[in-house]
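Tip: read the tokens left to right.
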């Protein structure tokens, strides 16, 4: 019997999407499972998209999740790390991707600005960048994610990964 599902890590830039997705993938791979990670920044680069407008973000989101649907249909586990900031994207995912699970990393803006690994918030506040999700570009934050992890100062990456791993095991998937 095959295993296929999609876990989508969503949240604003610097919320930890890439870090959590990599850790979760490592946990699943340690059990011998085949996992594909689709990272929004890498996909944007591959698709050669340099625009950050609402319409371009929406178009890219549908491309990302069409790709995720294709991977899931081939009996693989896919983990997506992308902002995917629109309700219509999340609804499309739920309607079209088998075994889809939404993981919302909810981190306060002041923490995001402090982390800022790509320097986008610094550039935003210096008026060097615009169309920044959650700042000058409106975001439809998830209202009913399967998992809602609120940032905690003492929280651990391992705790989040363990919750997701236990959920994965509870799906009665053979491995």
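Filled-in amino acids:
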């Amino acid at each position: 019997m095959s295993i296929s599902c999609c876990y989508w890590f969503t949240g604003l830039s610097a919320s930890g999407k890439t870090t959590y997705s990599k850790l979760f993938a490592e946990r699943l791979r340690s059990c011998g499972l085949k996992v594909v990670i689709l990272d929004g920044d890498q996909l944007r680069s591959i698709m050669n998209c340099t625009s950050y407008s609402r319409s371009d973000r929406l178009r890219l989101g549908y491309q990302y999740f069409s790709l995720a649907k294709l991977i899931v249909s081939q009996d693989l586990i896919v983990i997506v790390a992308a902002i995917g900031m629109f309700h219509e994207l999340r609804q499309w995912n739920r309607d079209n991707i088998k075994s889809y699970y939404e993981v919302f990393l909810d981190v306060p803006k002041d923490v995001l600005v402090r982390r800022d690994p790509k320097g986008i918030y610094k550039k935003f506040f210096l008026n060097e960048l615009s169309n920044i999700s959650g700042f000058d570009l409106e975001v439809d934050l998830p209202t009913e994610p399967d998992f809602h992890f609120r940032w905690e100062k003492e929280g651990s990456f391992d705790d989040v990964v363990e919750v997701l791993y236990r959920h994965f095991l509870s799906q009665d998937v053979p491995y």
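The chain has a mean pLDDT of 90. The first strand starts at residue 5 and ends at 10.
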